[in-house]
Amino acid sequence: MDLHILDHRLRVTCISKSGLQRYTHPLIKLIFLRNRTRCKFFSLTETPENYTVVLDEEGFKELQASEHLQVEGSTWLPLNVVSNGNTSSSSQAAGVTKITKSVIAPLAEQHVSVFMLSTYQTDFILVRDQQPRHLQHALHRTLVEEFSIFREERGEFLPVHSQDACDGSQRNGRDAAHATVHPVLVPENQFCVMSLDPETLPAIATTLIDVLFYSSSFKEDASADPERIKFFSFPADLLFTSSSGELWRMVRIGGQPLGFDECGIVAQISQPLAESDISAYYISTFSFDHALVPEEDIESVSEMLQTQRKDIST
Amino acid sequence: MDLHILDHRLRVTCISKSGLQRYTHPLIKLIFLRNRTRCKFFSLTETPENYTVVLDEEGFKELQASEHLQVEGSTWLPLNVVSNGNTSSSSQAAGVTKITKSVIAPLAEQHVSVFMLSTYQTDFILVRDQQPRHLQHALHRTLVEEFSIFREERGEFLPVHSQDACDGSQRNGRDAAHATVHPVLVPENQFCVMSLDPETLPAIATTLIDVLFYSSSFKEDASADPERIKFFSFPADLLFTSSSGELWRMVRIGGQPLGFDECGIVAQISQPLAESDISAYYISTFSFDHALVPEEDIESVSEMLQTQRKDIST
User: Fold this and answer.
1) Which among B22, B29, B206 has CB closest to A205?
2) Torsion angle of alpha carbons A117, A120, A121, A122, nearest 10°?
3) Helix (H, G, I), strand (E, B) or coil at A101
4) Residue A35's closest chain B neighbor by CA?
5) Exposure check for chain B: N or C terminus, fewer CB within 10 A?
6) With bands split at pLDDT 50, 70 and 90, how would you rate the model's confidence at B239?
7) Is A159 helix (H, G, I), strand (E, B) or coil?
8) Quick check: A205 and B205 CB within 8 A?
9) Considering only alpha carbons, which residue of chain B is nearest residue A63?
10) For chains A and B, what is the number of CB pairs under 8 angstroms?
11) How far apart are the first and last CA of chain B?
């Protein structure tokens, strides 16, 4: 398999529910009027808490600072696993499950905190751009066992040699082996995962604008109904797809907002899923992480994660 | 002909160029998401100076007060001429020309200031809701000679009798007979007048959003090029139409902003046009008035208005 280090320097930001009106103008530009902006990477995820917007530095320029905008301090690089035909993975499961053993687990072992953005087509693994050199090397040595590593430069993918090192790691004080096991919430509603040809975007613009900007009142109490969660994730280039009409259920990870420094959170969830070969999309947001699993697997996943909590707490 | 007094109480407002971002959220709702609002009358006109938004009181609630929003103090009622088959007008010309003799001139004679909003389908004549009772009667007596007058109430049109009186007049200090002749500007660019089936609105939403909210920088100097004027008028229900692909030229009326109190301005422009049977759309905005005339008539119209200025100033 190939590991691509994409040519984007990303910022992770958060718009409060009450700030959405103020940011409607730049967000509509970033989502629907792509040729008005030089932004090449954009993702927006609505959760009951807030809106998480991940975007490159060109896109970030569109967002004026205000009390409604929080910005994580680092720049992040997206990594992307590309299976080149003769895949070494034996798993048929989709999403993060497929890359758990090869990427997620090694990153956790190297104490690299990751921010995951799954789409139907691919899973973006965001890692911090700046990290100590010795960790770059350790990380590179780990990943190079599984992958040919390429770095995107001006649209071309150039092979990365060991001394160039793969970016992406920041040692965290907390050891992955003794990671906190976070409480999980399993809301009752079902989710669709679907994709759109970017060409059809104009045709459904008013519907998407309605859902994104007008379907919830910001006065809504986020904690009103923990059984149902409003969740809408929208990457502009690579939209979700559903070939089969199947429905998905969510596991939300975290009782308190997770922050950005802890490593091993994705691995904690994706490893048991990978062992059972259960497909999963994994979407990090500013406050919490979210895994989507097939509806028929939600009970076993729920049980699995409960058992894991007990195992670690005893 | 019938004169309908429509069941809308309208506000005339103005958003500054630099305030557009702030009002993008409510404006997109009012234009594209009609079932999210109870607003039934909406018109937006962009000029180099600002955005004029005319809307009913339900729509007005959507616009939060700010230093970027100016609101004219009165409530306005829209009048609408409906030709019921056996039209008494001998004119084949479209727009305001058709109603000059029957409505525009009598209103000017009664010293009623009007705010015009032409669309392809119809011409809305906005008059102030509150006016002295003796003027109501005078106005009614004048209009009743030409029209059967109906007032819309809960979707039905009820005949208006003389003692009920037609609303709409406010005597102005300045006499129509001695009205100021305002300087006119004839920009060089051509204009399209077109209509859209409301059903096709979603299909062109991104294009319209682009034109409305992203095509001009608010740093643009409004006076930069008086030869060309950016002008975009958008009523949500009754959109412009062009059956023939013909192009239109503009006459902008006013050197200084016209205000809302002077009467006879529309009559001053539309009377010579009516005499020559030249079609015209007439669109008032917060600062200036605008007449659109067929491209082939612009020179004679220009000349006509020059002669008129000289006649009055001598």
Assistant:
1) B206
2) 30
3) helix
4) B210
5) C
6) very low
7) strand
8) yes
9) B21
10) 56
11) 38
- How many Cβ atoms are within 10 Å of B222's Cβ, its own excluded? 16
**Dist CA B26 CA A285 (whole Å):** 27
Count each helix (H run) and each strand (E run) in chain A, helices first: 8, 15
pLDDT at B233: 74
Enclosing H/E stretch for A233: strand A232-235
In whole numbers, what is the pLDDT of chain A averaged over residues?
Answer: 80
Rounded distance between C-alpha atoms, residue B211 and residue B230, angstroms: 11
**Alpha carbons A20 and B147: distance in angstroms, whole number:** 49
Q: Which residues pair with A86 in a beta bridge?
A: none
Q: CA B208, A60, B222, B258: dihedral to nearest 10 degrees? A: 70
Provide CB contacts within 8 A for B46, sequence distance 6+.
B212, B216, B230, B231, B232, B233
How far is residue B309's CA from residue B300's CA, in Å, rounded to a whole number? 14
Mention every residue, 6+ apart, whose C-beta is less than 8 A from residue A299: none
At B97-116, the pLDDT tens digits run 888 888 888 888 888 889 99
- Pairing verdict, β B123-128 and B76-82: antiparallel
Question: Quick one: tokens of B265?
Answer: 């301005």
Q: What is the DSSP letter of B177?
A: G
Pairing of strands B2-5, B148-153: parallel
Question: Mind listing the pLDDT tens digit for each residue in A265-278?
Answer: 998 899 999 899 99
Q: pLDDT by residue (tens digit) across B200-216?
A: 788 888 888 998 899 87
Question: How far is it, in rounded angstroms, from Cα A230 to Cα B291?
Answer: 49
In angstroms, the CA B110 to CA A202 distance is: 50
Q: What number is the ipTM of this complex?
A: 0.78
Asked whether the beta carbons of residue B24 and residue A28 sit closer than 8 angstroms, the reply is yes
Q: Would you state the structure tokens that stand for residue A197, as one six-digit string? A: 């040809």
Closest CA relative to residue B46, chosen from B238, B253, B216: B216
State the sign of the Cα–Cα–Cα–Cα dihedral B58, B63, B64, B68. Answer: negative
Q: What is the mean pLDDT of chain B?
A: 80
Contact A158, A151 (CB under 8 A): yes
Complete DSSP assignment for A181-230: PPPEE--S--B------GGGTGGGHHHHHIIIIISS-TTS-TTS-TTS--
| Chain B closest-CA separation from residue A47 CA (Å) | 20
Residue-wise pLDDT tens digits, B135-145: 667 677 778 77
Q: Which residues of B86-110 are buried (b: 16+ CB within 10 A; e: fewer)?
A: eeebeeebbbbbbbbbbbbbbbbbb
Please check whether residue A250 is in contact with residue A186, taking contact to mean a CB–CB distance below 8 angstroms.
yes
pLDDT > 70: what percent of chain B?
80
- Residues contacting B217, CB < 8 A, separation 6+: none
Report which of A149, A146, A175, A169 is spatially closest to residue A160, judged by C-alpha positions: A149
Classified as helix, coil or strand, A139 is: helix
Contact A25 B29 (CB under 8 A): no
Asked if A24 has any chain B CB less than 8 Å from its own CB, the reply is: yes
Closest CA to A109 of A49, A63, A169: A169
Domain ranges, ordered by start, for chain A: 184-218+233-313
Tokens read off for A254:
């975290």
- Fold category of A184-218+233-313 in CATH: VC0802-like (3.30.2130)
